[in-house]
Amino acid sequence: MKVSEIYGFIDSFAPFCTQEPWENSGVLFGCPDNEADRILVCLDITQNAVKYAAEMRCGLIVSHHPLIFHPLKQIPYNSAITALIKNDICVISAHTNLDKAPGGVNDTLCELLGMDYEKADASFGGGFLNVGTLKNCKTGTDLANHLHQKLHGAVRFNSNNSIGKIAVCAGAGGEFYADAKAAGCNTLITGDADHHDFLDAAEAGVALFAAGHYETEIPIVYKLAASLERQFLKDNNDRQSLFADNEPANAAIIVYPYTNSINTITEAF
Q1: Tens of pLDDT along 71-113?
Q2: pTM
Q3: Alpha-carbon torsion (172, 177, 182, 183), positive or negative
Q4: Which superfamily, per CATH, for 100-214?
């Protein structure tokens, strides 16, 4: 498999031309003509992720979050970037294009939560919002417990009022509470929200739930790895993914499910 083939496949369902103007998705390191017989799929490209990719002899890392967002003035010797160069590992990052794509980050979160959902009009949240309902979540506490059970992380929320129509934005979407309300929702589920988002959302009559940036986005890593398997590993005998450290060492599509040293509170209530 060439890096360009992997790029073309991702571009077919999450076009890189749809990324936001401020961001940096695409081929970030390496030559598109390089061979990539083994691929590491991850959320964040950390030093540990690069080390693991090198140990597993991966020629390509596919990440959700781009390692480079802004122009660099210097590259530290012991950085992830230096390790990528030393080990001749290519990088493809698919960020906001994958967030908004059909079957992408947001859709995957809604499916995991068991929602009946649809894409919100792009005028609400710039294409980053889904809207829908959860039948068995009547109150804020019901929804918080459901998020905790499905995503296994701490959940913060600002209201125990009745849950109606729900807007969803995986990752950092606390700022979209006004767009959620404009889309006819009284509830917004996201990953990250700051203190003032909670206060302002409450004033606007929107129940805001923050279930963790990592927790709301890591499901796409597994889904993307499975999609790469189906597309590029035609022989069922070779379709073995490494979902952590306990699968066959000859796996071709490898999932690195860890981010930086962030401890998750597993008992939120």
Answers
A1: 888 888 889 999 999 999 999 999 999 999 999 999 999 999 9
A2: 0.90
A3: positive
A4: NIF3 (NGG1p interacting factor 3)-like (3.40.1390.30)
